[in-house]
Amino acid sequence: MTAILKKILLSLVVMTALPAMSQTYPDKPIKVIIGFAAGGPTDVIARVLAQDMTATLGQSVIVENKAGANAKIATEYVAQAPSDGYTLLFASLSHNVNAIMFKKPGYDPIASFEPISMVADLPMILVTSYNSPVKTLPDFIKLAKDKPGTVSYSSSGNAGSSHLAGSLLATEAKVDLIHVPFKGNAPALTEVMAGNVNFIFYPIIGIADQVAQKRLLPLAVGTTKRHPDFPNTATMEELGYKGFDATAPWVGMLAPAGTPALAVSKIDAAIQSALAKPEIRKRLNDLGAVIVGSRPNEFKAFLVKDKLHWKKVIDASGLKPE
């Protein structure tokens, strides 16, 4: 009997033995686990949601960061947590990617979880330090060709969205780029602003403020059309590189497999309630997020397709499982 099947059977026993639990749910605080450092895009959106969900559910929704291994640590933690609706995962693109990139991921991205809602997409933007002596992507590529091994890019960790986008650029431009991974997008971006790493593909959330404060210089956007926040910044496709819109990470809420349906329904309803509020929609839109708000069945169908997509991208990039 597999560990996942044992977990599901145990959850069914618990549900049978404690029928009143679902009716009173939630009757204690709920933890939302994030696999990246505080201050990054996934963290920021989760905290916006958690604050509103606390009011809706009548119990504290507490965000807890368990950074490391491109969110693998956090994802394994939630996969093994009790299926009672009190430990949730706010996941991103790495959810499926880790299952491909790690020989022993410690979880199944579909079978180990109950999908609740894909909250938003986060388009990518390529940025460098405002004080960087190199001001354009073509000039960075020229430098990488003239002096191999001198141009670097940071990421939130191996096989994260920034890493995959950087690897895709290296493949498309036929250059060697140095990958510098960190435990989350926030520290990865900080090192770019400091000029210690040349550039990063970063979710567009919050970047406009950093550009306005002259900390970052945009080089290109990963959207199919120019982004309204950066009308003077070319798209990757305009610069000759296609497919970067597909590197945009998503963010969404999941629960451990076997979580009671009523608990899933209440969390979903709280998320939908939050995303329907004009002030929250404006806050997320101002941060650059594209709101999705899918329902559990829709999110599950997306995860199945997303896994197949990233398998093709990773195979084409030449990245090898660890």
Topology, element by element:
Layout: H1 3-17, H2 20-24, E1 30-34, H3 41-57, E2 61-65, H4 72-79, E3 87-92, H5 94-101, E4 113-121, E5 124-129, H6 137-146, E6 152-155, H7 161-173, E7 178-181, H8 185-193, E8 199-203, H9 207-212, E9 216-221, E10 250-256, H10 261-275, H11 278-286, E11 290-291, H12 296-317
Parallel strand pairs: 1-2, 1-3, 6-7, 6-8
Antiparallel strand pairs: 3-10, 4-10, 4-11, 5-8, 5-9
Helix pairs in contact: 3-10, 5-12
Order of helices and strands: HHEHEHEHEEHEHEHEHEEHHEH
Beta-strand percentage range: 15-25%
Give the C-alpha Rg.
Answer: 20 Å
Biggest sheet: strands side by side, in what order? 2-1-3-10-4-11
Query: What is the C-level CATH assignment of the largest domain?
Result: Alpha Beta
Number of helices: 12
Please tell me about this protein's structure.
The protein is an alpha/beta fold. The chain has two domains: 3-122 and 249-317, 3-Layer(aba) Sandwich (D-Maltodextrin-Binding Protein, domain 2), CATH 3.40.190.150; 124-247, D-Maltodextrin-Binding Protein, domain 2. It is built from twelve helices and eleven strands. The chain has helices at residues 3-17, 20-24, 41-57, 72-79, 94-101, 137-146, 161-173, 185-193, 207-212, 261-275, 278-286, 296-317, and strands at 30-34, 61-65, 87-92, 113-121, 124-129, 152-155, 178-181, 199-203, 216-221, 250-256, 290-291. The strands form two sheets. Strands 2-1-3-10-4-11 form a six-stranded mixed beta sheet, with helices on both faces. A five-stranded mixed beta sheet has the order 7-6-8-5-9. Helix 3 (41-57) crosses helix 10 (261-275) and helix 5 (94-101) packs across helix 12. Mean pLDDT is 90; it is low at 13-21.
